[in-house]
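> @MW can you paste both from yesterday?
MW: sure, first one:
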Amino acid sequence: ASDIVFLRAFHTIPIKKFYNPITSLLSVTYMRTIAEIRRSKNLAVPNKKDSHYKPIERVVKRFNPVRVPKALEAELPFKSKTKQVKTNNPARAVVLDKEDKRVADLLGQINLLHKDKTKKRREKVQKQKDAYAVKRRAEEAEADARRQKKRKTFFRRE
């Protein structure tokens, strides 16, 4: 039959030193930096074309106009709807020039979309809260029933 034999034999082995300890920092000369080597050999700093700064060329971004969906525009109050105003009377003419009007319209549309998005988000959060409240009420009712049953069994024993 095969027997398992454990042999415990230890022997101390001296470890070789792979370093040279420094006893005095005065006699040590460390490695020279690249700048020191260049200075001692009178070499100029290499001038690489890739290392120079290049002027930044930015492309002007053109954004598409904001389009308000027809269904959303139908729900808007009259003040916020897009209107085509045609007047023959110069006294009632709008003072804004084209650019100002475009900016005002764009800001109004962006605000409208933002309000609609926040309204939808609030409704969604409210639905989630309501669902959670219903769930919590059901859990609480279950827990109350469990506690009541436990109390009944406890007091019945005595």
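MW: second:
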Amino acid sequence: MSASEGKNKKDKIYWVPLESSPQVMNKIIEHMGVGASVKFDDVYDFDEEILSMVAQPVHALVFLFPEVEETNKVREVEAQSSKDKVSPNIWHMRQTIGNACGTMAIFHALGNNQKTLPIGGNIAAFFDKVNGLSPEDKAKVLEQSKEMEEAHRSGASEDQSAAPEADADVDYHYVALTIVDGDLYEIDGGLSVPINHGPATDVLRDGVRVAKRRIAAMEDKNIGFSLIALSSVAED
């Protein structure tokens, strides 16, 4: 979903909500044109023994959590307090397409690591086209991009035997966590600015710290979370 869905529902563009699955996300980035040496994979637990098994280097995390009003308010306050602490090198796009937050998190994970990832094809062309645009204008370009919509659909139809309707009401949200210019950012198209979580050197462990804090604040809700890492892997 999105933290800021402003248009009337009948006037919005909607994409089918994504399942929280590395297989789904890998299908999308493959279709976009990302090289096979980069993959998404589950972070199964936050214990150090499990974290040490995650493929390195980790470039970004995609964090899924429930849409809870109290948490949304906290995040909005954190975003506003980050206004003057956001690197000019952050790649940020607003979300105007309903239920596209999963793919938005993928855009933010890739967009903030363009210099280190094997990005080509349609996604490279998209990044070139929106280079220098505001987050709002990037979103307008995405609304018109058939190539990116097709990439999303390639994943939305993968491993989703009972996919919801595109305009279904969903109660979860995806964000990206990654390091830009030495700070860890929580990047969300539903927020006007990314949230700066301060100095960081390890995307995985510093990102887990943020995820654990979010989870602790919602532990009484008895609903699910997931964390998926975007890592470099050895090619087959």
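> thanks! Confidence is low (pLDDT under 50) at residues 2-7.
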